[in-house]
Amino acid sequence: MDYIIDILIQWGPWGMFIAAFLAGSFFPFPSEVVIGGVYSLEKQQGVADGSLMWTLLWTATLGNVLGGVFNYGVGMLCSEEYIIRKFKIKPKKWEKSKRWTQQYGFWGGFLAWVPFLGSAITIAQGFMRVNFWLSTLTSTIGKALRYILILMALGAAF
Predict the structure, then answer these.
(1) Whole-angstrom distance, CA of residue 25 vs CA of residue 49
(2) How far apart are the first and last CA of the chain?
């Protein structure tokens, strides 16, 4: 895994996009490590500026949102049994995700950034046919805010 992370860091914003897509989908992947690595590498090379922060924000958010859209599609296309079995979602977490989705609908997208739970939420939204555009909008806002906070912390740390 460290080898893959190192390669993605070397790829800069494109690597960030790929890492964020994986993190946004049901694949467990540490996009925070990649965004920190890309920022640190660019800073060492003397090219880290405000435009880098914006580039990382947009590539990370877009990749992460598209990973969530992928999950939504999985939820729409797959049966409940298949989802639980193939994506290794614990039945208890799956039921919680469905209840959450029934209660909050597209608003649940605001928490699609939460590790592990976010994937279950986006899959459940697709499974339950929650409005795609509103789910994507709320998910985008939540994920963007998360990456803004991460980038603010990186800017303060370096």
Answers:
(1) 29
(2) 25
State the Cα–Cα distance between residues 22 and 64, nearest whole angstrom.
7
In 3D space, the residue among 19, 123, 32 whose CA is nearest the CA of residue 62 turns out to be 19
Quote the distance between the C-alpha of residue 110 and its chain's center.
Answer: 11
Q: pLDDT tens digits, the chain, 158 residues: what are they?
A: 788 888 899 898 899 999 999 999 988 888 999 999 998 887 777 666 667 888 999 999 999 999 999 999 999 999 989 988 887 778 888 888 888 899 999 999 999 988 878 888 899 999 999 999 999 999 999 999 999 999 999 876 65
Instruction: Give exposure, 71-90, as e/b (b: 16+ Cβ within 10 Å).
Output: bbebbeebeeeebbeebebe
Q: Give me the residue label for tokens 């997208």.
A: 109
pTM score, two decimals?
0.89
Contact 143, 64 (CB under 8 A): yes
Neighbours of 158 (CB within 10 A): 11
